[in-house]
Specification:
The structure holds two protein chains of two kinds. Chain A has eleven helices and nine strands. By secondary structure, chain A is an alpha/beta fold. In chain A, β1, α2 and β2 form a beta-alpha-beta unit. In chain A, α1 crosses α11. The radius of gyration of chain A is 19 Å and the shape is globular. In chain B, α1 packs across α2. Classes of the chains: A alpha/beta, B alpha/beta.
Chain lengths: 320, 167
């Protein structure tokens, strides 16, 4: 089957989802990200790879961390970065997504970094670019609806590899609101592709997709049972803004059953690491003692995220 | 063509050329991968106090647009302050000069060196940029056929040898 993310010779053209991306490509991205981590230590924190290229950050949904780290990554590659907060611009005046994009292409865009509340929007954009003969422009998905958040998934994989080296001997638990989480989908896809033998998801029935087993995971509703012996704990944010109806009695009750506390963490292996994509709801999905404790690698995740986004953008620019 | 010279002999000659011109603040920086091996040899042979630096110029190459990104770039590492320092940049084979240019650009992103010199094991000519080595162990007298690649190899036990591949 044609993978729209890869060119005919197998080079990365767009990054839309980690689902279906071959293991070799995932590993290549992580390998290329490694030397980019060193750039931050230099007097001049820049390399010239994307000099003269224009990267448009088009965010149809609010974001601070992701947009900022994409901006830093593009700037460290020497690209010109244009940030559009579309939530406050022409789309509010009635312009369609593709009209907005056409206008930005006319302004000389070389790459789009897009976040959108609708699943599939970046795919639509990539397809539109191909249909209109603008194949040289790349698309990076910075999160679309409940579908995917591939760079978050990749930076999580980078973080796990950094601390644990080998994926093929790990037990990994993804905990919390999987139902609304594009991060969880990207994480599970990448973990599976990279050969993690046991991926668990832990959460209340109301916050797990009904067919979650089809993603190749073991399901636990009891957190104490699910955390036993895991090497990596990937916490998810409780996405209150996406919840409709009464999925949870209260956030206090959620914390009691699914909040990561030191007592629950003690059930995992003694050198287990704790990841969280941010922003954290302290006292809801994670206790402050854990978030600020020795097992948390939440801030290194942010730093690695810049290097991973640099790797993705430089590979896309080279693939075109 | 005559057989390729012994790489270890060339390294010894290069060390002998550099030795009388060492300064107290001299540091070596090898260009990945062949240049880093030569720099490693020189660093031990010359007994330098300053730690050895290395550069992978993958992010600075000018042919990135046409050839893409190297799939496994290495971390560059400059474990000393480059400002005002005497630096000898080390590569295995000098050819068009484009790798040297990329390495110079990268080095300046760490600061402002006092002086940079270039040391190479072999110079195969056909420069495309105004770059010349200060130290060179072997100058090829004849041009190599277009598309051929002269490079340094390192064996299992660290032994160095030159290799010539024709297109």
């Amino acid at each position: 089957m044609l993978n729209p993310q890869l060119s005919a010779d197998g080079r990365l053209k767009h990054l839309i989802t980690l689902d279906g991306l071959p293991r070799g490509v995932l590993t290549e991205i992580l390998d290329i990200a490694a030397p980019f981590t060193e750039v931050a230590a230099r007097e001049v924190k820049k390399v010239p790879l994307l000099r003269g290229k224009s990267v448009f950050n088009v965010f149809f949904e609010n974001s601070t961390r992701t947009r900022t780290t994409f901006e830093i990554a593009a700037k460290r590659l020497s690209a010109d970065v244009i940030n559009l907060n579309v939530a406050t611009s022409s789309t509010n005046k009635g312009e369609t997504l593709l009209d907005t994009v056409d206008n930005l292409c006319a302004m000389g865009a070389d790459m789009f970094v897009m976040r959108h509340a609708s699943s599939g929007a970046p795919y639509l954009l990539a397809q539109h670019l191909r249909n209109t003969g603008r194949d040289h422009i790349s698309v990076v998905n910075a999160g679309d609806g409940r579908h995917a958040h591939p760079t978050q998934g990749l930076l999580d994989m980078y973080t796990i590899r950094h601390y644990k080296q080998d994926f093929t001997r790990l037990t990994v638990a993804v905990v919390g609101d999987v139902l609304h989480s594009r991060v969880a989908r990207s994480e599970i896809a990448a973990l599976t592709t990279l050969g993690v033998p046991e991926v668990r998801v832990i959460g209340p029935k109301t916050l797990l997709p009904s067919d979650v087993e089809r993603m190749g995971v073991r399901v636990f509703h009891d957190m104490n049972e699910g955390l036993r012996g895991v090497d990596v704990i990937m916490m998810l944010r409780l996405q209150n803004e996406r919840m409709q109806g009464a999925l949870l009695p209260s956030s206090q009750e959620y914390f009691k059953f699914y909040g990561l506390t030191e007592e629950k963490l003690a059930l995992a292996t003694k050198d287990a690491i704790v990841l969280h994509p941010g922003p954290m709801n302290r006292g809801v999905e994670i206790d402050s003692a854990v978030a600020d404790g020795d097992h948390a690698v939440i801030l290194p995740q942010v730093t690695f995220g810049i290097a991973v986004r640099m790797a993705v953008m430089s590979m896309l620019a080279a693939g075109n | 063509m005559t057989p390729l010279p012994d790489a270890t002999r060339l390294c010894e000659q290069l060390a002998a050329q550099i030795k009388p011109r060492l300064r107290p603040d001299t540091a070596l920086v090898g260009i990945h991968s062949g240049g880093a091996w030569v720099a490693d040899y020189l660093h031990r042979a010359l007994g330098l106090a300053t730690a050895l630096g290395s550069l992978d110029v993958a992010f600075y190459r000018d042919d990135y647009g046409s050839r893409g990104l190297h799939p496994r770039p290495q971390k560059s590492g400059i474990p000393f302050d480059v400002n005002d320092r005497h630096i000898i940049l080390v590569d295995d084979v000098l050819y068009t000069g484009r790798t040297t240019r990329a390495a110079l650009n990268e080095l300046f992103d760490y600061g402002r060196p006092g002086c940079i010199e270039l040391a190479v094991l072999a110079d195969r000519g056909e420069r495309q940029l105004p770059i010349a080595p200060a130290y060179c162990a072997w100058v090829l007298e004849e041009r190599l056929p277009a598309g051929s690649k002269l490079s340094l190899r390192r064996g299992e036990h660290g032994e160095l040898s030159l290799e010539l591949k024709h297109a």
